[in-house]
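Q: How would the structure tokens look for this protein?
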Amino acid sequence: MGYSDSQCGFLMTMGLAKFNKLPKIVAVGQNYVLHAKEMGAKSIPKDPILFLKSPTSVVIPPEPVKVPSGVVAHYEVELGLVISRMGKNIPKIKANDHIESFFCGIDVTARNLQLEAKSSGSPWSVAKGFDTFLPVSEKLPVDKVKDLNDLNLYLKVDGEMKQQDSTKNMIHSVEDLVSYISSVMTLQPGDLILTGTPSGVGEIVSGNVVEAGIKEPSGTSDLVTVKVAVEDDTDTTYTHG
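A: Here is the predicted structure in token form.
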């Protein structure tokens, strides 16, 4: 699938001829039952809850997470997917053909702003979109694991275990997510999907070191890891209202 002639003309006049090469980050909310409950969900979502994160939220350690003044930041460990090729309305049985690799991501969330957004029925874009709010690990080809739906996730803050669960406990499987997302928007090479976080989320502040990883169920060593420091963003003060 590509752009129509009129769309291409518009992009060219705006100097955005390569606009369709920009990746998108599609994230999934409340995809583990216990996390949905700790977030106050009254029922399990029938369809995946989708939101987008800004590409500028990605940060590669040793660059730190920077928390603006006025933000209460929470960690959320997630299995991330990298899309390999374009797809629209992808059948579940073909979903894995569109996944190039996987990674461990930490979906940092401005929880105070997210709760305000929820109470007013507003989007989560601000709460999820700050620069550096998605530290990522290296990526690993999917053929290095037996099953993306049976991997162990963990997250530690200053060496203390905070989150620990398995992707087998996801409400919507990897295949479900790829298929559903592609029914809404075309997936393109380089797009990222964050598959949701388990329970145990909590606050991080300047001076913390956050470490997260993904393992095989029977594995003793991590397949991928991400370790990132947290700092105050002295250049940014978030004000609203």
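The chain has a mean pLDDT of 91.

The helical segments are 5-13, 33-38, 111-120, 125-129, 174-184.

Upvote if useful.
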